[in-house]
Design a protein that fits this description.
With about 290 residues, the protein is of the alpha+beta class. Helices cover about 25% and strands about 15% of the residues. It contains 6 helices and 11 strands. The strands form 3 sheets. Strands 4-5-6-3-9 form a 5-stranded antiparallel sheet, covered by helices on one side. It has a 4-stranded antiparallel sheet with strand order 8-7-2-10. The longest helix has 22 residues.
């Protein structure tokens, strides 16, 4: 706690005609849990992350991935290739390359890490967002309360690791086809591959797993799913609570699975639609 600031015993009570909860996919479910919101079907906190793999590539020319549009190229080729119930798909994206982001997500330390960062402007990074939440291979995670905070448990299944290996192969093939001189899947202990044939053989032999393989995420979704079936949802398709008459949820927690795509625009669209509908409803009833 910042020195000089101490909590008081002052309690403030808000009274409103209708409440909107927009605390995000982590804090919306934790607030509802701490408020003892009815959850008879144990739906609160079921969270999805698009767990992501990274592949770095070195080019002869300057790439300057830190400059220009932060994310301009993507491919949906592999997202639904085997259907929703098949092997896990993944979306390929060209990620922005900023110093702190790369320094914290690349592998190695000391001299090897310094050499990697010395060639920063020649590095291109491709990421693969694994589509989670559609079948038993990717059940997603669970937000739970602890004594003084919260925790998020997110198991990575064998199905996920198979998808990760396929994603590494796709990214390496794409990077070599684009002219990369060498490619480095972000997995501890690896050296750069100098050709697509070497990468294909090496990646197929990789023992992927926790700690060894870099897995990142920036897309936190779910936790307070929407739907008309109360056994599978906490709010309806307009974000209105199934259990509390004057509560609506308007944020990324309402997704019942991950999207298989960056969620920002979907959150904007759903909230704009549901907020407009709620405003009309409250205006008509006043």
């Amino acid at each position: 706690m910042t020195e000089g600031f101490k909590p008081t015993e002052l309690t403030i009570t808000f009274s409103a005609k209708h409440y909107i909860l927009s605390a995000g996919a982590i804090h919306t479910p934790t607030i509802l849990m701490r408020s003892n919101t009815p959850d008879p079907h144990k739906q609160l906190g079921k969270t999805f992350l698009h767990p992501s793999l990274l592949s770095g590539a070195m080019f002869s020319e300057q790439i300057n991935g830190h400059s220009g549009a932060p994310q301009s190229i993507y491919s949906d080729e592999f997202v639904w290739q085997d259907g929703a119930a098949g092997e896990l798909g993944y979306k390929l994206e060209v990620a922005p390359v900023h110093p702190v982001l790369i320094a914290s997500k690349t592998i190695g330390y000391g001299v090897s890490h310094a050499q990697l960062m010395a060639n920063f402007n020649q590095m291109q990074v491709t990421i693969a967002l694994i589509r989670d939440g559609f079948n038993e291979q990717s059940p997603g995670g669970q937000v739970r309360l602890t004594d003084d905070s919260f925790a998020l448990d997110y198991p990575l299944t064998e199905g996920f690791w198979r998808g990760a290996k396929r994603a590494f192969l796709s990214m390496a093939e794409l990077q070599f086809a684009a002219g990369a001189k060498k490619v480095l899947p972000m997995h501890d202990g690896l050296n750069f591959f100098d050709s697509w044939n070497d990468a294909k053989q090496g990646i197929n032999q990789l023992d992927l797993g926790l700690i060894k393989t870099i897995v990142a995420s920036a897309h936190v979704m779910g936790g307070c799913a929407m739907g008309e079936d109360k056994t599978q949802a906490m709010v309806d398709s307009y974000g209105h609570s199934h259990y509390l008459e004057n509560l609506s949820v308007m944020d990324g927690s309402v997704f019942p699975t991950s999207l298989g795509a960056n969620p920002q625009l979907s959150i904007y669209g759903i909230v704009a639609r549901n907020a407009t509908a709620l405003a009309q409803k409250l205006t008509q009833s006043s």
